[in-house]
């Protein structure tokens, strides 16, 4: 009887692990790798929704250029996502121009 009453608790723990704990660990790992991979020149969005380009970068602090004359300092952990990497931005710009020309021809 003791082992039979223990099975539901084991099943509940397994369900919690696969539905809650494991996905959260995966999200955390992805976020940490994104934060460690950011570099100068990347365009990012902060948790508060501010868009900017990374001008300076240390282990804990990021300085963003918001416009030509405004620079704002944030903690690295305040970065929500990388919109475009400096290497990707250089290669994706010509593709966008080609798409715009294709739309003009169709329209």
Classified by CATH, the class of the largest domain is Mainly Beta
What fold name stands as the CATH topology of the largest domain? SH3 type barrels
Uncertain spans: 88-103
How many strands? Answer: 5
Q: Radius of gyration over alpha carbons?
A: 22 Å
Which architecture of the largest domain per CATH? Answer: Roll
For the largest sheet, list the strands in their spatial order. 4-3-2-1-5
Summed up, the helix count is 2
Class from helix and strand fractions = alpha+beta
General form? rod-shaped
How many domains comprise the coordinates? 2
What is the succession of H and E elements? HEEEEEH
Strand content: 25-35%
The overall pLDDT average reads: 83
Distance between the termini: 75 Å
Helix content: 40-55%
Keywords: Cell membrane, Membrane, Protein transport, Translocation, Transmembrane, Transmembrane helix, Transport
InterPro entries: Preprotein_translocase_YajC (IPR003849)
Family: Belongs to the YajC family.
Membrane topology: Single-pass membrane protein
Describe this structure in words.
The protein is an alpha+beta fold and 107 residues long. The protein folds into two domains: 1-37; 39-107, Roll (SH3 type barrels), CATH 2.30.30.30. Helices cover 53% and strands 25% of the residues. The chain has two helices and five strands; from the N terminus they run αβββββα. It has helices at residues 2-37, 86-106, and strands at residues 43-46, 51-57, 61-65, 71-75, 79-84. It has a five-stranded antiparallel β-sheet with strand order 4-3-2-1-5. The N and C termini lie far apart (75 Å).
């Amino acid at each position: 009887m003791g082992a039979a009453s223990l099975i539901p608790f084991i099943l509940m723990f397994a369900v919690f692990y696969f539905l809650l704990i494991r996905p959260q660990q995966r999200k955390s790992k992805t976020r940490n790798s994104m934060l460690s991979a950011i570099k100068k020149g990347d365009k990012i969005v902060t948790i508060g929704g501010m868009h900017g380009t990374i001008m300076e970068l240390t282990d804990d602090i990021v300085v963003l250029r918001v416009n030509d004359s405004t620079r704002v300092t944030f903690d690295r952990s305040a970065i929500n996502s990388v919109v475009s990497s400096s290497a990707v931005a250089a290669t994706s710009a010509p593709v966008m121009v080609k798409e715009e020309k294709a739309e003009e021809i169709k329209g």
